[in-house]
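re: ur question from yesterday

yeah so i grabbed the chain u mentioned. its 130 aa long if i counted rite. heres the sequnce exactly as i have it in my notes:
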Amino acid sequence: MSQKPLDRARLEEQRAAFMQALVGTFQARFHVLNKAGGLMQKDIAERLGKDPGYVSRMLAGQKNMTIQTAHDLARAMDSRLEMTLKPYEEMVPTDNRPHRGATSFDDLSGFSNTKAAKYAGPETNYATGS
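ran it thru and got these structure tokens back, copy pasting raw so excuse formatting
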């Protein structure tokens, strides 16, 4: 079965939305940990063996995150990163209209970082929003 090539512009748009949601998820988790126990960016940096500016850039979305970097950042925040890979048909974006190529972070992509933090408690599964 032959499939047509991916729309590059749409793919780039989806990638940007995914990364924005991923960074927003980390920001929300950091906010919860900071308020609950005073975790600071310098604490995360020490755990990672990195400069505090590195962590600041990661949490601001100014540095591209690899899966390894996202994993390590999550662990430094006493958290576990979970990801899901689902068929397009199972994805529902925040506007509740099915479309192809939605990300597993769609449940947070429509929130501002402040709103995401409000809903991102310690037991939240950040990959699925449950």
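noticed a couple things. The two ends are 35 Å apart (CA to CA). also The longest helix spans residues 8-37.
anyway ttyl
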